[in-house]
């Protein structure tokens, strides 16, 4: 029976002997010559053995184990074997009889090997924790693991897990108190009274004023839009705009604000840092409330003036089709008959061309074979009534229908101009000026072209605004012009060429780049972290040198006399994967289990349940919590609901408990923490099998499209909201992140955003930070190559993901033989050098988190084309891209590794369909809360991948023990997403796993 301390150490990943010593650690624990010299200085075999065991223990545990009975017998036997001591178990018992000798040996080992007692190293650890806790928001468990890493690096002896955890909790509490005190110190007495007033529940009301402010105003409507603006005004009117909180790290403010905006107010009032949390929430609401209002404006304009008129126009066209379709047929037949009459005659023998002879009677006779003249005239006129005018565009019908919403424009425009403070870049200034002038024109009946901005009249707006022949020359159709201004304004707002002062999501993207004192302060650390120099000369020379060497190498391998003249390489197609004998054998030997057993086994091995804490970081108060977590994961992951996994026979599986746990414990940050633990376990297992890989990661997305408007979702041209569930997979087949993104984002840039967010978490957990990204670039491929390469990642799209396979060169005078014509495009390094300072600022801002990679791309482009700064980054990207294309063409191993990583998404998608059997395929339609279900499904997929990896390792060890030679290339190609051995249907049983559940069958190695 394990003690409470042992269970805590196991769940937290703290070094202990609870599960013995992994086989992969034994090579690092062998005694070297210096160790043997010290050991030989001891008198008696029992003392030499005891000293050696103590030395091995401290290397593995990071601390001494004076209770020799708790040291595994396997360790004593192995150490005895190294020393050639017979019967080591008896000798170690003799050694333990003299406690003074045990302590003296421990003291000697500490002095010889430079170990510091924890009591002496504690002040430095506390100072390090205090410094780190000023910026990080990691919970107690994550910080304890970071402290463990620090102690090992500084050779400080580890204390008991509970001692270290309590120290971390104390330091974390002190740091939170310091932030709270610093924030509260910025408040005046009046502001303190306002905060207390916000938390009070008015007489006759059921909720506090803070509840009302943080709740929002409901679904999109014009009335609710004005309420949303009033909510933003109310927040600003509280009088906290002048409170400067810039000295508090953004992550700390975000954590406090999240707490105040999600915690129930009665509980919040009882907490010590309540005023600081409410202040952070108010500062958040000062921008987010206005962001929410503009989100609603975006949806209303998209729905009322774009999507709904488009549906009306499409419906009218469908209803009119029976009326004009026959007329179209008649008109086409008449036209064809005329064209046949006037066609030239060509004599194929002589080549002579003879003009046709036609006269009025012949032409009339030909037409009358189709229909009489009056019928044809009526058909042509009827057809013109429904068809767009010449020179128009496909939007005219939709825009004409939108004119019926002019009354909404009359209400909207004055509200926008009077209540929202907009700004604009040079590209958006004309639209914003026209919007500000529009309220004075709405009541004009004699509006003329001289009164409006005619530069906005693009496409069909020109005809609609100027009107038809019935309008006098120079007059304007006011509803059409007003809709034209609003649509143009909305388009520029979505591009952020028009922005809103005081917003975050709708604010000026360029203003969010690091600048001034903040940039100068952060610059040295960021450049050092990114390995980017102040002076680009040597850096660019090395990059151009690599490009030159790659071109020379590939050119030298091409067949003699060959020339690539098309300007690009013909990249090989992706090879279909082959199933090896080893793969078939492993699939047969994997233990036959049920899905709940898989979940419980992985949660137990990784200590994943410890990640499921309360919002305050405390452990859950439930007994058999593992069963409840597993039931929620299976119920939501399989999309069968909690009712299907609930049971009255066990308290842990009660329906009410499962509902409560799913609501309170399956938060995004909890799923991320559990994923991190699984990623660490997966990396350790693969390292044991020597399958560390090349640190690849890939990105793919599941796209959704819905017809109804939702806040935060972009409106597609056809009038539907579209968004993508983007997943990032590591080479270990573990989903690192999954999130819902508006529109169709660049998968490669989404990976950069994810790795920027996960950087600290990956480094701490001992996992390997991905260095190469396999993903589709989307638009601006060269620019994406530049952004990722400068950010320290190798961008490696598959041949199918490369849109433009053109090659580039730096040296104009170089002779690349067969590649000479293909490399005629030149990269200007001076363009990159001239913009180097701004390039550093953009890359540094992404790395710092000031802007996302997607926002950076928007800053670097204008009207679909790169700006001068964007062109400079794209030029650098072409160096990396050309090197990548050459390696794809020339290096089959490089190409196959990338293709294998790309296939992971397809394999994972197949597994997702198998698991998510509650409907026909995983989540074909969007519904509110889908993001949470997809997050749980991702965690369940990670669980299956890790389970397979663990038991693949056991199978490989068993086969090797039988004398089988396992080819490393076949081992590397084994899929960790196999599922034929897992039962995912039927009535599930949730029981704590035992060893007999996962027995590996004794299958003959040569069986197929």
Describe the structure.
The model is unreliable at 705-721, 760-768 and 919-924 (pLDDT under 50). The protein has 39 helices and 16 strands. The protein is 56% helix and 6% strand. Helix 32 (781-790) links the parallel strand 10 and strand 11 (794-795). Strands 6, 7, 8, 9, 10 and 11 form a six-stranded mixed sheet that branches. A two-stranded antiparallel sheet has the order 1-2. The protein is mainly alpha-helical and 1008 residues long.
List the topology elements.
Elements lengths: L3 H9 L13 H4 L3 H8 L4 H17 L11 H11 L4 H8 L3 H14 L5 H16 L6 H14 L7 H25 L3 H11 L9 H7 L6 H15 L13 H13 L2 H5 L4 H68 L3 E2 L6 E2 L5 H9 L4 H14 L9 H7 L3 H14 L2 E3 L4 H9 L23 H6 L11 H17 L3 E3 L15 H15 L6 H21 L23 H9 L3 E2 H12 L18 H13 L17 H10 L3 H21 L7 E11 L7 E2 L5 E10 L4 E8 L4 H18 L7 E3 L6 H10 L3 E2 L12 E2 L15 E2 L2 H6 L1 H13 L4 H7 L1 E2 L2 E2 L1 H23 L1 H24 L14 H32 L6 H5 L9 E2 L25
Parallel strand pairs: 5-16, 6-10, 10-11, 12-13
Antiparallel strand pairs: 1-2, 3-4, 6-8, 7-8, 8-9, 14-15
Helix pairs in contact: 3-4, 4-5, 4-6, 4-7, 8-10, 9-10, 10-16, 13-16, 14-16, 16-17, 16-18, 16-19, 16-23, 21-23, 24-34, 25-36, 27-28, 27-38, 28-29, 28-38, 30-38, 32-36
